[in-house]
Amino acid sequence: MKQELIFKELSYRINGALFDVQNELGRYCNEKQYGDLLEEKLKERKIGYEREKFIPESFEGERPNRNRVDFLVENLIVIELKVKRVIERQDFYQTKRYLVAFNKKLGLVVNFREKYLQPKRIINSQFVD
């Protein structure tokens, strides 16, 4: 049984924007520069987004506005930008926490330092429709 990709069309459009960003800036800029250009690319494509959206507190007593996602696209997909030698397990866990906190189905971890850009898809198994 073949499964469909989650948010296939939107993911394709986002990936196009991400590849354009890396093609223009290369591999050695900082996260803010990549985020600024990604914001422009999303606007050009008329893709709705919120940038640096605060995450709701996940437990009583947690400081408000402590964590935020880099981008929440079309209120469907969480995007976390990274600029590091390799993506680590903690990066996946961080994105998974954000997906659960927002009750979103799909997240993308994007490391612009990689020679070949490979956005990593993270599925929230705890998603409630």
What does this structure look like?
Helix content is 36%, strand content 22%. The chain is an alpha+beta fold and 129 residues long. The protein has a single domain, classed as 3-Layer(aba) Sandwich (Trna Endonuclease, Chain: A, domain 1), CATH 3.40.1350. Strand 2 and strand 3 (77-82) form a beta hairpin. The longest helix has 18 residues, at 8-25.
Structural descriptors:
single chain; 129 residues; Trna Endonuclease, Chain: A, domain 1; globular
Task: Summarize it.
This protein is α+β, with helices and mostly antiparallel strands and 129 residues long. Helices cover 36% and strands 22% of the residues.
Sketch the topology as an H/E string, one letter per element. Answer: HHEEEHEE
* Count of DSSP-assigned helices: 3
Q: Looking at CATH, which topology would you report?
A: Trna Endonuclease, Chain: A, domain 1
**Total beta-strand segments:** 5
**Helical residue percent?**
25-40%
What would you report as the Rg, rounded to the nearest angstrom? 14 Å
Average pLDDT taken over every residue:
94
The low-confidence runs, each spanning 5 or more residues with pLDDT under 50, are none
Total domains? 1
How far apart the termini lie comes to: 22 Å
β content, as a range? 15-25%
The second-level CATH architecture is 3-Layer(aba) Sandwich
Spatial order of the strands forming the largest sheet: 1-2-3-4-5
Biggest pleated-sheet summary: 5 strands, mixed
Structural class of the helices, strands and pairings?
A: alpha+beta
CATH class reads: Alpha Beta
The shape, in one word, is globular
